Amino acid sequence: MKDIRDGATMMVASFGGPGGAPSQLLVALRDQGAKNLTIISNSVGMYGFDPEPGVPKTATALSFPNVTMLVENGQVSKAIASFPVSPSSSRPTAFEKLYLEGKAELEVVPQGTLAERIRAGGAGIGGFFTRTGVGTRMAVGKEHRVIDGEEYIFEKPLRADFALIRALRADTYGNLIYNMTSRHFNPIMATAANVTIVEVDEIVEPGGLDSEAIVTPGVFVKRIVKRTREGDQ
């Protein structure tokens, strides 16, 4: 994490709960302390998940490491996300409070559009037209076009300086296998950053992965970090 600079744009893979989130990398980024980060993520801290039976839920953050800790540590200045606020107005997230105080910028992106913008960034596509958001505030300031009688808006691709992702296994070349539903934002974010850092449960030698099960080719991965038992959450 040492070369993550102030002002960097970070993709952080998550879907809402603890599954498939690079929790130990997030702890390391908090401890590293880079400021004024732009976070591209599905959510920017949500409540209501209990990762293990008996682990209490809290009123300020989820019971597992997530982007909220970066917000509370004063490291986030902007978020590009689908779910930037709490589902409960009586329990606003740390980012929600920061935004309402005028201390952070926010770009809300529909979930499917967010995924496609990231995919476009990884594929080198200059953008795409979509009907999602037409006629809403999300269409303000964007190019409009009528195609076959339907109105569309133009969405630009997203890329990042760094992507923090989570996989189940990696070989030393960086080829990745994911665990079930962890194939949410992890594979596409891996393709759309200058430096992709992956947190894995196991690292094996080349040939140790079923080639038919590999989802992310190692060409997209720059750094592999094995999860530690002591830091497991």
Kindly describe this structure.
The structure is a single chain. By secondary structure, the chain is of the alpha/beta class. The chain folds into 2 domains: 9-108 and 159-226, Glutaconate Coenzyme A-transferase (3-Layer(aba) Sandwich); 114-158, no CATH class. Helices cover 18% and strands 28% of the residues. It has 5 helices and 11 strands; from the N terminus they run E-H-E-H-E-H-E-H-E-E-E-E-E-H-E-E. It has helices spanning 23-32, 67-72, 94-100, 111-123, 186-191, and strands at residues 9-12, 37-43, 76-83, 105-108, 128-130, 144-147, 150-155, 160-171, 176-177, 193-204, 223-226. A hairpin with a 2-residue loop joins strand 6 (144-147) and strand 7 (150-155). The two termini are 20 Å apart. The relative contact order is 0.17. Mean pLDDT is 88; it is low at 48-62.
Query: Would you give the CATH topology of the largest domain?
Result: Glutaconate Coenzyme A-transferase
CATH class of the largest domain: Alpha Beta
Rough outline: globular
Please describe the biggest sheet, giving its number of strands, its sense, and whether it closes into a barrel.
8 strands, mixed
As a percent range, the share of helical residues equals: 10-25%
- Tally the helices: 5
Task: Draw up the topology in text.
Layout: E1 9-12, H1 23-32, E2 37-43, H2 67-72, E3 76-83, H3 94-100, E4 105-108, H4 111-123, E5 128-130, E6 144-147, E7 150-155, E8 160-171, E9 176-177, H5 186-191, E10 193-204, E11 223-226
Parallel strand pairs: 1-2, 1-8, 2-3, 3-4, 8-10, 10-11
Antiparallel strand pairs: 5-7, 6-7, 8-9
